Amino acid sequence: MKLIEKKCPNCGASLEFDETAKSCKCEYCHRAFEIERDNSLDVNDLAEQFNLNELKGPLKAFSTFFLGSYIITFVIALVIFCFIFGMIFFGFKDHSNSMKESGSSIVNKKEIIKDVNDLTNEDYDHIMNDATVKVVHTGEGKSDTNHSYSLNSKLQRESVYVAYKDNSNKIIAIVSGTYHDFFHQENTYTVYIPLIYENVKENNIAFSSANIDAPKYYFTPEQDSWVYGYSSLDEAYNAAVKPLENDYKVTKK
Q1: Three-state DSSP class for 224?
Q2: How far apart are CA 119 and CA 253, in angstroms?
Q3: Quick one: pLDDT band at residue 246, thresholds 50, 70, 90?
Q4: Among 16-25, 35-44, 196-205, which stretch is predicted with the lowest mean pLDDT?
Q5: I need a labelling partner for 198 at 20 to 30 A (CA). Which of 9, 80, 140, 147 fits?
Q6: Please, what sign has the CA dihedral across residues 107, 113, 119, 123?
Q7: Global pTM value
């Protein structure tokens, strides 16, 4: 396959194409040309046998796109590569920063909570989230053909205690929930449920899981409908907190 060298009819720049090409494009003025071979000429210079006519209309657009497709493909690939690389780099950087921040908060704050005043609003939010998962999902009132008990509203935080001794602690959160009977609206029951956390460190409450410290509370004498909890706040306190007062320093909020 022979290469033909011609001058651009528009700007005079050098053009190079092979003898089988149907069109070409000037790299300087970006004009596209149709290549025609005049076989009737009997000349020694092969280049003289080829004529260049500027493309018009749709053919020009198609040729321009075809000849520039390699450049366009390269530019698009470069943009995609830069985007993916940027996402990976900044994602890794954010992940590293978050790991450092979370790590520093745990490493630098190992003090065990000694007093209820050490708890933050985020800790109380976590307690209520635990109550929603632990109590509502596992202690929902059971139903039968005559009764259907359900929680009347969101659980409420009644009181929170911290019992501390010898570098260990317990956090006791008592929450209440009011249940009513769908078939008998006059039947309403409020139960009190202690949640117990063991040895919770400062800013580390989310790494512990609360245990429900309450027996089943039965709504009916037949004991076929129940939730976890006690019938009064005093009963929940006497069962979950008072036994600790002899060995622990207990604070309340």
Answers
A1: coil
A2: 10
A3: very high
A4: 35-44
A5: 140
A6: positive
A7: 0.56
